[in-house]
Amino acid sequence: MNMANVISPSTVDALIKFGIDVAIILLKIVIVLAIGLLHVAYATYFERKVIGHMQVRLGPMRVGPHGLLQPFADGIKLFFKEDIIPAQADKVVFYIAPIIFMAAAMVNLSVIPFDANFVIADINVGLLFIFAMAGIGVYGIFISGWASNSKYAFMGGLRSSAQVISYEIAMGLSLVGVMMMAGSLNLSDIIRAQGESIFGMYAIPQFIGFIVFVIAAVAETNRTPFDLPEAESELVAGYFTEYSSFRFALFFLGEYIAMILMASLCTICFLGGWTLPWYVLKIFPFLSYVPGVVWFVLKVYAFFFFYYWIRATVPRYRYDQFMAIGWKILIPVAIGNILLTGLVKIILKEVL
Amino acid sequence: MPGTYLPTEYLPVLIFILVAEAFGFGALLIGVVFRPKKPYPEKLMPYESGINPKGEPRTRFAIRFYIIAMLFVVFDVEAIFIYPWAIVFDKIGIFAFIEMVIFILILLIGYIYAWKKEAFVWD
Question: Which of A6, A179, A189, A307 could lock onto B86 through a cystine, CB 3.0 to 4.6 A?
Answer without folding.
Answer: A179
